[in-house]
Each structure stands twice: as C-alpha cells, then as structure tokens.
Amino acid sequence: VTVNEPPTTAAAGSPQTICDDGGGTTLGANTPTLGTGAWSVVSGPSTSTAQFSSTTDPTATFIPAGGAGSYVLQFEATATLTASVEAALPNLQLLLHQQEEMEVMC
C-alpha cells in the first residue's frame, strides 16, 4: 500500500473566552482539502458532542452545556483508505490523522 499524502493538517483556531450567556461561540478550524474533519471535547465540565451545532463543520457553533469552566476542544482531520484499496486488502485498517486543540474559557 502506498500512501501519497497525509490528511490536511488540522488547525483548530485560537483560544477564546466567551460569556456564559447561552449564545456560544463560532469556532474557526480550517476546512480539510484532503480527508474530513471532526470536532470533539477533550475535557471540560461537559464532554457531550451535542454542544456543537455540527461536529463536522469547521466553523460550527459551540455552546457550553456544562456551564462555566475551561473546555478543551479538538478538531481532527482524518483520511482513510480508498474503496479500491479496501476491496483489494479487506483486512487492512489504516487511519491517518492530524489534530489540534483549542481552549474555550467561560
């Protein structure tokens, strides 16, 4: 198996401080040109992914459901095998990823 390119390097954006007014904040990750991206909560008062308007939108809205505190968010860009490689080598599993974290204080 030849892997030509890794996924796009993830860029989660700068740390942000927001008020706990229920409005949340717009995130600013980059859009992967190779692979797909996904948001997750690494740590914080709530780690539910329901806090994102969309886990796959780089500029999703994040509304902290756990109230005030420090949240560490992660945007991860992932590339997987092509369908032709999967068909030829059905037992091979390969996952390439780049990730970056950001902190939201509220």
Using brief descriptors, characterize the structure shown.
two-stranded antiparallel sheet; 4-stranded mixed β-sheet; mainly beta; single chain; elongated
Report a brief summary of the structure.
This protein is mainly beta. Helices cover 6% and strands 34% of the residues.
How does this model look, in words?
This protein has 106 residues and is mainly beta. 6% of the residues lie in helices and 34% in strands. It is built from one helix and six strands; from the N terminus they run βββββαβ. The strands form two sheets. The chain has a four-stranded mixed β-sheet with strand order 1-6-5-3, with no helix packed on it. The longest helix has 6 residues, at 83-88. The radius of gyration is 16 Å and the shape is elongated. Residues 93-97 have low confidence and may be disordered.
Helix content: under 10%
Largest sheet: 4 strands, mixed
Question: What do the pLDDT scores average to?
Answer: 76
Order of helices and strands: EEEEEHE
Strand content: 25-35%
How would you name the oligomeric state of the polypeptide chains in this document? Answer: single chain
**Uncertain parts:** 93-97
- The number of distinct helices, counting runs of at least 4 residues, comes to 1
Rg measurement, Å:
16 Å
Biggest β-sheet: strands ordered side by side in the sheet: 1-6-5-3
Distance between the termini: 46 Å
Q: Quick one: how many beta strands?
A: 6
Question: Layout of SSEs?
Answer:
Blueprint: E1 16-17, E2 25-26, E3 36-43, E4 61-62, E5 70-80, H1 83-88, E6 95-105
Parallel strand pairs: 1-6
Antiparallel strand pairs: 2-4, 3-5, 5-6
